[in-house]
């Protein structure tokens, strides 16, 4: 059994993961090794969990963990969201994250945050 915590294994794993997470990149057969394949499979699995099967087509807007965190934050702050360009599969996931934020929404905290941002010259539309 190979050491899964070796620097070389980790590097190959993360190379595979990043390629699997990006639907526009194809599997690199030149780098075929256990770590790269495991990373690719994991990245592709994460992509399809958030965006649907690649065989169904690549959506106009790609959902990533960062995008989901932005929707969660919007819910926490009570902000409206723009959902144009997302598929129904993506909207199901986005709705869960946004709703999770809405459930934790505290109007007083939002007002304080907006005041702080405004003091520092940051405008929220």
UniProtKB/TrEMBL annotation:
It comes from the Bacteria. This is Uncharacterized protein.
């Amino acid at each position: 059994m190979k050491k899964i915590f070796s620097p070389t294994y980790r590097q190959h794993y993360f190379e595979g993961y990043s390629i699997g997470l990006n639907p526009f990149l194809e599997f690199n057969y030149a780098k075929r090794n256990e770590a790269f394949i495991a990373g690719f499979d994991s990245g592709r699995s994460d992509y399809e969990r958030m965006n649907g099967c690649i065989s169904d087509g690549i959506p106009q807007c790609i959902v990533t963990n960062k995008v989901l965190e932005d929707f969660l934050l919007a819910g926490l702050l009570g902000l409206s969201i723009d959902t144009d360009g997302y598929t129904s599969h993506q909207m199901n996931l986005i709705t869960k994250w946004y709703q999770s934020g809405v459930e934790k929404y505290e109007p007083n905290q939002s007002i304080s945050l907006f005041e702080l941002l405004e003091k520092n010259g940051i405008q929220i539309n």
